[in-house]
Amino acid sequence: MPIEPTTRRSVLAAAAWSAPVVVVATAAPAYAASATGTLTVSAGSTRYGDSISEPGLGYSGVMFNGFTLTPSADSAGPLTLTVTPTAGRVYSDGTEPDGWERTVVEDEVLVFVGGGPLTAGTPVSFGPGGSEGVYFDDDGSGAPFTLTFSAPGLTSVVVSYGPSRAPRARTAPGR
User: Fold this and answer.
1) Cis bond leading into 78, ω under 30°?
2) 75, 140, 165, 174: which sits with the fewest CB atoms below 10 Å from its CB?
3) Where are the domains of the chain?
4) What is the C-alpha separation between 160 and 31, in angstroms, rounded?
5) Helix, strand or coil, per DSSP, at residue 160
6) Sign of the dihedral through C-alpha 54, 60, 61, 64
């Protein structure tokens, strides 16, 4: 069975599906002009996979374990997490990490707000450490999630979690 030639598109597609976590710092438009610091992510052993809250039902989620954000400068807060699926919907059963509150729950977006004033160099946890906590899943869509963390005066951080798929060989049409 012939394999299609390697193209930029196939290389980028393979890279996108083979890397389960991508961390990129981006400026949030609302705060970009006043950003004086950054947020640093430490993912701990947080992972994407079968949802531990509903095993065997075909739902995948982000299992948080030791996930922290550390501001490089003080901020009045709060720290906001916006969860957006790249396709399908995001589902939350009402569970949230200690110190965080769900403020928006829709099919296309989920928002958590946590903490008051943030102190430079002091980590803020999202979820437990030493065990896994799941706060949302993909409702069976298999779509990656984009997590955007932001706070006033700090540059936002975007983290993506999703399925890791090995590239598949494809055949040319009609063969």
Assistant:
1) yes
2) 174
3) 21-161
4) 21
5) strand
6) positive
Helix/strand/coil (H, E, C) string of 103-130? Answer: EEECCCCEEEEECCCECCCCCEECCCCC
> Mean pLDDT of residues grouped by 10 in the chain (175 residues)?
45 40 43 74 92 81 92 94 88 85 85 91 92 87 90 94 56 41
CA separation for the pair 110, 144 (Å, rounded) = 14
- Of the candidate CATH numbers 2.30.30, 1.10.357, 2.60.40, 3.30.1950, the domain formed by 21-161 belongs to 2.60.40
Q: What local confidence, expressed as pLDDT, does residue 159 receive?
A: 93
- The residue count of the chain comes to 175
Whether the model pTM is above 0.90: no
* Whole-number Å distance between alpha carbons of 111 and 109: 7
Q: What are phi and psi of 42, to 5 degrees?
A: -125, 110
To the nearest 10°, report the CA torsion of 101, 38, 19, 145: 30
